[in-house]
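Quick illustration, no need to memorize.
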Amino acid sequence: MSDNELVREVFKRKRGRSQMEEDAVEEEREDLFRLTSVEGGKTYSFGRDGVNIGRDPGSCGIVITDNNVSRVHCALSVLQSEVCIHDKSFNGTFVNGRKIGRGRFALLSDGDVISVVNPNVNKEIGAFSFTFTGQINKRGTAPLDRQALMGPLDFYELGPIIGQGSFSVVRMGAHRVGGGRVAVKVIEKRKIAYDLVREAVKVEMQITQHLEHRHVVKTLNIIDSADFVAIVMEYISGGDLFDYIVGRGKGPFSEEEAKYLFSQIVDAFLYLKRKGIVHGDVKPENILVSFDDPSTSASEIPMAATEGHQETAKTISPRSVTLKLSDFGSARYEGDVILLDADNSIVMGTPTYGAPELFCSGDTPSASQPSITLDSSTDVWSLGILLYVLCTGALPKRSGCEVLLTSQLFTFSEDCKDLLSCMLRVDPTQRVTMEGIARHSWLEPYELGGTFKDEDSLAATMSLASPLAVRSNRPSFGPPK
């Protein structure tokens, strides 16, 4: 992995794949979808890796050598059983005669006709048009389609899938009455066979419906039906922090900009700390970027706008960004006991950002323990990795369980490096507390989290002097009574 760029990593769980995951791996090797040229009937098949249409043979699987066609005119991407077409052209991509528009996308259905020239002006479009055919070889368990979700979700017009996980998908949507955009996380009950997964879904529902903070994605509604759970959330238009960081390139932020962004996330975690909640999966992909965005009517949802987030990142000042924490699928309450696998690891969160007591089987204080009692120290470690990424645009190097604070930080202040050192202690009992982070001199310009309890203030003061926060014997928190 290069030190000069942040690379999205995919980590395989140590547990066996579900049948759904095995099917998905097989389908990556298959041709599942088809485009048929309106003129001549030539067919082009593609699988889950999608296909590009355009003038450049190096970038496109379907090449049209015409000056009216852009280098990459449009891109077809696959999310589970659905295909979206993204318009990247200057002259327009059309579906059934309707222009999508550059930077926007449409959800494709069987029989849709895609045109890379305007069919309303140019009648001889056969060589520039293709008919779309949906899944050719259906196998496995496809996600519930939009029609199957109607009834319980009648108040919302559902659009395309905009994200997915092992047991859920997230769809864009709009309220039929108010017209405001929403994001709808759909968790299918047939896919959550394990008791631990069912319990995690239950905890996520319990936690998210009570959260109300300016830096946490707001849950608007939770619908628990016979076949699925739907968590309706505010829609955040700016993509995630990962895309924002990557889009800004090497050294994405100045120290002051990194501080400004990080302070927002710390504020959210102080709020969670007071509620006794451990997020459990802190990473840029789970932090959303918000800025001004117009509402979208329900009728516009199938072709709702989507920005090229990485492409526009350089034009958006960090000072105009509001960050919002999302995805509480790994969240637990402080005091919850989590059992470790035989190799002292745990299926929770993401290894790159996860605390060593959760993922590292080396010489850690928890290495010989069969379980871990969760508290906010696991989130503190992950926030330390996040701060490093904000400062450098790269993931830190490691030596065993330890993180190495390299020369990439040479332009940053001693206060910044001190805070990172306090957060990235392998021993969780020696890490700075969440309150200690907020009280650290590096974040002094920001008033975070309001008033602390006396013992928290004492611990934070000790963190500045030692510079470690000595954690008191705080009582364990559990679910609200």
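The chain has three domains: 33-132, 156-234, 239-451.
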